[in-house]
């Protein structure tokens, strides 16, 4: 199973990947600190140390830049994955790895904060929320669905509806403790998370074991 493609600018291959990274880093910090509405392309260019022309040569506008920031952060979940770690014949090990990476991503302060920002934009900027959903949550879900299809093809799991199964798996990974974290009521320890993920994976495997 191939990993998601690395982040590239929406308007062609960047001349300087390091400069693109500076733009993404600066924009991400701006979005988290100020919220989507209060961020300007001028401010991002200044923070990144690039000209507005350079910024617009890489991103058509603020919406595209925000989408790229979300996609870049989401892709960080997949950087350590390879075909050995995600063996379709070993779903328990593979799903445990996916669960650990997914929960680690979702527990990160910047990811929690950007979800809070999105909730605030839900009624005023549904288009931005749609971009966020496709670049973040939907991207992760697609990755899980791709692995589950391979596990089914390998005869390791028996799943009639891959989409429903992926939703169930990711929902199991988060649960009540993630809602508490999002509300600022504290995060579980890494040990607690690891124990819970092992149980969640075991429950999922039991429900979809090959017949």
TrEMBL record:
Keywords: DNA-binding, Transcription, Transcription regulation. PANTHER family: HTH-TYPE TRANSCRIPTIONAL DUAL REGULATOR CECR, HTH-TYPE TRANSCRIPTIONAL REGULATOR RUTR. One of its GO terms (molecular function) is DNA-binding transcription factor activity. Residues 17-77 form the HTH tetR-type domain. It holds the Pfam family TetR_N. This is TetR family transcriptional regulator. SUPFAM superfamilies: Homeodomain-like (SSF46689), Tetracyclin repressor-like, C-terminal domain (SSF48498). Coiled coil: none annotated. It comes from the Bacteria. Residues 40-59 bind DNA.
